[in-house]
UniProtKB/TrEMBL annotation, chain B:
Alphabetical list of PROSITE patterns matching this protein: ABC_TM1
Membrane topology: Multi-pass membrane protein
UniProt-recorded name of the protein: ABC transporter permease
Localization per record: Cell membrane
Keywords: Cell membrane, Membrane, Transmembrane, Transmembrane helix, Transport
Domain of life: Bacteria
Length: 367, 290
């Protein structure tokens, strides 16, 4: 461990049962110091349970949690070097903003004036300078969020745990807070662990993401790797949009697999482009992202890439983007392609016969 | 303005509240005003002389017996309130925090069981339990633990406080329970997360947020107990009267209605002042909560 970054949180084979329900199924995870780490998954996948386990609000049935190298088994929540931003923010309604932020400083030996300066500094850090005397109930959702952040960060924890902190905010506010959280994390250098069900949020903010399904970690990777090379079909389905085409494996060598893809024809794929299919649907399929293929207008010349004939089935206009649902020959379900509406490119009409340009490098085989 | 008062919707509203309004006027306001009027009239033995006087109030405020009984009533009501609220809080806390959600309504139902029998019968039952030859004393003498029956549990302030505290327990448990139920449980986790032990979290988060319920319970218990008549009469054996007993004596036994009325008005004013102080406190706690 001396060469790489230090491990801040280590989860070792954590199991958690609620009665008969197996909520966490053998979680092995290392979160590095100073990292922005996300636990991503659909509701009920155990991500919040795992976060609460790290915070000390849930006992684990077996396994171990280590924070900064120390076993947390006998350390209660109030003595762990973690602080949490709750989903509901949990701002104390009977206290002012400053009293909320100063809540955890009670046993701090510093003087009153010094603490007041700390509170003001923490409020300044989250953009709430001068809000100290406001009553907590008079704050907007975004402001509560900031108070919750200041209240946690003032204690300088080793780890900040964030439980779906942005889910209650409207879209614009959420996007703004995402950027602010990233900046804040870089500024304070504390390890952040974020729980979210929003794949976009996780991709935007995280250094690394653990995708969880049914109490286990399906894939732990950097955002780019997670998006481009999902390790199995569930992950591919959950993160972003992915098109699936039926496929048939017709040959395999040490270096590549030869696949007959419905609508696209025969391709050779290296082993690095092969992921696992769902266990309950073992038929091989080919997946690709909407933005990895391009529509070519009828007047445009042929390209170096491979081309396939297609008919536009549906057009969804998003302003900056247009989504096209295309019908390929011999494929029952339409595939979705996204195109940037750059200058000079017209939005095409439904029913147009067009060509689809693509390269085998953007395909992933699930089998 | 006149137009608004008489539009159809308003008329319907007024006609709907009219019957209870008239009823309340006759049953509550009229007797109250009569009492207020009586308290300023002269007593002519067996009859009320229609002559304005402040003599009744002068007597109420100067008579040492009245003062003693008034103070005793305040003391008893204060003690009952203290005992009831202090005992009710753990019960409410237990039901709100420890009982599983699907069992809570059953617990509340159990708490209201004492209301199934009349107040008078419950008071009598306490007399049976606490009496000279009552359940407690005969059991203890029968077991040879004591030779003489205990006397400190009957016909004194202790027994009055005990009986009233039992009678008013549900009235204190319910508002405290409601206040505790409203507390967002993540606030308690936040308290722990910010480094406080369970005890300190209770002290700094749970208790302040439960205060509106505690103050409501205090008022609900204090106001009726200060004017309680039955319990001092039966449990106190008539030897330790409270203000209601004194009013009854003046009104009926001595037929001095003006003095009785002046006592009633004074008692009511004292209760009103105490209640207003509590309401003010309640407002202060509530102000931050909304």
């Amino acid at each position: 461990m001396s060469d790489g970054p230090k491990a801040m949180i280590e989860c070792q084979d954590i199991h958690k049962y609620y009665g008969d329900y197996h909520a966490l199924r053998g979680i092995d995870l290392t979160i590095r110091e100073g990292e922005f780490f996300s636990l991503l998954g659909p509701s009920g996948c155990g991500k919040t349970t795992l976060l609460r386990t790290i915070a000390g609000f849930e006992d684990i049935s077996s396994g171990a949690v280590l924070i900064d190298g120390k076993h947390m088994e006998d350390v209660p929540a109030n003595q762990r070097p973690t602080n949490m931003v709750f989903q509901s923010y949990a701002i104390f309604p009977h206290l002012s903003v400053a009293q909320n932020v100063a809540f955890g400083l009670r046993r701090d030996p510093r003087g009153k004036a010094e603490k007041a300066a700390l509170v003001e500094e923490a409020l300044g850090m989250v953009g709430l300078k001068g809000y100290g005397n406001r009553a907590a109930h008079a704050l907007s959702g975004g402001q509560r969020q900031r108070v919750a952040l200041a209240r946690a960060l003032i204690l300088k924890p080793k780890v900040l745990l964030l439980d779906e902190p942005l889910s209650a905010l409207d879209r614009k506010m959420r996007e703004q807070m995402q950027v602010e959280l990233i900046k804040l994390q870089r500024q304070v250098g504390i390890t952040f662990v974020l729980v979210t069900h929003d794949q976009e949020e996780a991709l935007v903010m995280s250094d690394r993401i653990a995708v969880m399904f049914e109490g286990g970690i399906a894939q732990l990777d950097e955002p780019e790797a997670l998006y481009a090379r999902p390790r199995d079909r569930r992950v591919a389905d959950f993160i972003g949009v992915m098109n699936f085409l039926p496929a048939q494996i017709i040959g395999e060598t040490d270096s590549h697999v030869t696949v007959q893809v419905g609508g696209l024809g025969q391709v050779d794929l290296p082993h690095s482009q092969i992921s696992r299919a769902n266990p309950d649907d073992p038929e091989p399929t080919i997946g690709f992202r909407p933005e990895t293929m391009t529509l070519i207008g009828p007047s445009q010349p042929h390209t170096q890439a491979r081309e396939t004939e297609a008919v536009i089935d549906e057009v969804v206009y998003y302003g900056d983007m247009t989504y096209y649902d295309l019908r390929l020959e011999n494929v029952p379900e339409p595939v979705r392609i996204s195109m940037r509406n750059v200058f000079g490119r017209d939005v095409q009409a439904v029913g147009t016969r067009t060509r689809l340009a693509w390269s085998p490098g953007s395909l992933v085989l699930f089998r | 303005m006149t137009k608004r008062i008489f539009d159809a919707e308003a008329r319907q509203g007024y006609s709907l509240i009219a019957p209870p309004f008239v009823y309340a006027l006759l049953i509550l306001a009229a007797p109250l005003l009569t009492i207020l009027a009586y308290s300023f009239l002269t007593d002519g033995y067996l009859e009320v002389v229609k002559e304005f006087t402040l003599e009744n109030y002068a007597q109420v405020f100067s008579d040492p017996i009245v003062r003693k009984i008034m103070l005793r009533s305040l003391l008893v009501a204060g003690l009952v309130t203290l005992v009831t609220v202090v005992l009710a809080f753990p019960v409410a806390y237990y039901v709100s925090f420890m009982v599983r959600p699907e069992r809570k309504s059953m617990w509340l139902f159990l708490i209201t069981i004492p209301f199934w029998t009349s107040y008078l019968i419950r008071v009598f039952l306490w007399k049976v339990i606490l009496g000279y030859n009552g359940v407690i004393n005969s059991t203890l003498t029968g077991l040879g633990i004591i030779d003489e029956p205990l006397t400190f549990i009957l016909y004194n302030v202790n027994s009055i406080v005990l009986t009233l505290a039992h009678a008013y327990a549900p009235f204190a448990i319910l508002p405290i329970f409601v206040a505790l139920e409203k507390i967002d449980r993540s606030l308690l986790e936040a308290g722990r997360d910010l480094g406080e032990s369970r005890v300190m979290t209770f002290w700094r988060v749970t208790l302040p947020l439960a205060m509106p319920g505690v103050i409501a319970a205090t008022l609900i218990v204090f106001i009726p107990t200060i004017g309680d008549y039955v319990t001092p009469e039966l449990i106190g054996g008539g030897k330790i009267p409270m203000i209601a007993n004194l009013i009854q004596v003046q009104m009926l036994a001595l037929d001095n209605r003006p003095l009785g009325s002046a006592l009633a008005v004074t008692a009511m004013s004292i209760v009103a002042v105490v209640s207003l102080i509590f309401l003010f406190l309640n407002r202060r706690f509530l102000k931050v909560r909304q």
